[in-house]
Amino acid sequence: xxxxxxxxxxxxxxxxxxxxxxxxxxxxxxxxxxxxxxxxxxxxxxxxxxxxxxxxxxxxxxxxxxxxxxxxxxxxxxxxxxxxxxxxxxxxxxxxxxxxxxxxxxxxxxxxxxxxxxxxxxxxxxxxxxxxxxxxxxxxxxxxxxxxxxxxxxxxxxxxxxxxxxxxxxxxxxxxxxxxxxxxxxxxxxxxxxxxxxxxxxxxxxxxxxxxxxxxxxxxxxxxxxxxxxxxxxxxxxxxxxxxxxxxxxxxxxxxxxxxxxxxxxxxxxxxxxxxxxxxxxxxxxxxxxxxxxxxxxxxxxxxxxxxxxxxxxxxxxxxxxxxxxxxxxxxxxxxxxxxxxxxxxxxxxxxxxxxxxxxxxxxxx
Length: 366
Hints:
Pfam families: DUF6698. Residues 31-51, 236-256 are annotated as: Disordered. The chain is mainly α. The protein folds into 2 domains: 4-31 and 43-96, no CATH class; 149-357, no CATH class. The protein has helices spanning 4-9, 15-28, 44-66, 70-75, 79-133, 161-167, 177-184, 220-230, 251-256, 262-265, 273-287, 302-314, 319-338, 354-365; strands at 296-297, 300-301. Strands 1-2 form a two-stranded antiparallel ribbon. The longest helix has 55 residues, at 79-133. The protein is elongated, with a radius of gyration of 23 Å. The N and C termini lie far apart (54 Å).
């Protein structure tokens, strides 16, 4: 049962901590009638504290899907032993999923490497033909890109141009060689660790600075990591990179493999923000050269990343953002559990960014 915890409940907080947060939230915030409408607007620190407690409160509610009457059982005799066993299962799941994500990401990276090498060989053959014809005397030596070790993260990370580009936030111009060098040497003026907008999370890995939510959490790589963790590694085989036009799910095949799917074991029938956040953490980590599962690496805090994505879904800034989050979850569920014949079947393709929502609000007020 503990293996379900990071996959649907919480990743970085232990079970004792979320219970403390659950109690604190109930004592301080659950009775809305006690709030004073004339009280001053809460400070950023107060809002952050409330949101932290709220995440823990939601985590305990999610634990009820893992262990029925979790709070009662945790407080009874034998509760500590139960929590200890659950924590062991959670750690085991994180280790297993780290290895699975490393392999699927390595496989996808090598698909790209092979395509690039095929093009380089074609270009070299064409250049060789021109030399033989005498139309040119210059022939650049053929340089092929080495493939990645799919079972190890060695050779990945910021120092590798391919994985570095995927890790780099969209706000930073990785294509500028001077900026790229600054990111690699971790120049504080180009802090890749300060943003949750890594290109690996975006559809087609394209970031629009004017619409930062456009395509966010809709990348092919993220879908592949999610499939590997929550359905099965085989479900990620031969998937189209066109995330907007996927074939309908094979109902017979899905039925036959139901027992093997992690999502079914942990009673997850639709995609949740917490499960996306967990997959995102594993994708980002799999692109680094970290030797093991860690909470932070190269200054990048994975707890902060998980919180950011969870809050994207659970704590939207306004009604438009709430609608956007709901549509994005539907987009995900269509692709993971339902299947879709075309992009028009998913309302997620109509999503707007937070910035667009603000513009709409201002226009309506003018």
